Amino acid sequence: MAEKYFPVTHVIFDMDGLLLDTEVMHEEAMDRILRRYGKRYTWEMKLKQMGRSQEDAYKIMIKEYDLPISVEEMMKETSSFYEQRFPCSKLMPGAERLLRHLNFHKIPMALCTGTKEKNYKLKTKNHQNIFQMFDVRMCIPDDAEVKTTKPEPECFLVCVKRFPKPTPAPEQVLVFEDSLNGVMAALRAGMQVVMIPDRRMDQLHRSYATVTLPSLEDFQPELFSLPAFD
To answer: 27, 186, 212, 221: most buried by Cβ count inside 10 Å?
Structure first.
């Protein structure tokens, strides 16, 4: 963990597993497919997939498990399951409080997520009042300007350019992430990053972030020269 934090003016949030509790739905969908082939979805596989686009995550799983199924077939199979489950997505602890606080103080906010636009709409269907607070929204798989996914830094660097002018320098941006791939992407982009990891993540994977916290409820904005909670 870094001993000194630098002032920031803008923030970028990941979505799945950070703002919305959707990771359990992903795990259930993956396990349903793997069980047909006598296999089980593991934490190690989840760790490799976290932070990546759906297509890349499926490619990794097919290769690792040597599955006789294509990415397109997996997409089709999981689509109906997700259409039923995603609208039930709930906000993670502390998410609404933090977003409303930053919005109230007019801190520019961006959403940079590896989910497709279609799934974004399903997941946020019942939380429009929260997600309309973002100044910038980027669904990486559908973004024509972004050619690579996390852990590459491109998505964050492009995202920063879309903030209302004057756009900030990377070092003026604080990123919130739950995945190691997301953390590495933010660091490579020259940004500080707050990590809210899955409780199963080991200490080594937690150690790269600027600061690692159990929950968004534990975040102290004033550490980064943002307005403190009342």
So the answer is: 186
Which of 14, 31, 56, 143 is labelled catalytic? 14
Check if 202 is active-site: no
CATH homologous superfamily for the domain 10-21+89-224:
HAD superfamily/HAD-like (3.40.50.1000)
Taking residues 105-131, report their average pLDDT: 97
Point out the catalytic residue in the list 16, 21, 31, 66: 16
pLDDT grade, residue 47 (50/70/90)? confident
Is residue 14 part of the annotated active site? The answer reads yes
Residue 165: count of CB within 10 angstroms of its CB: 6
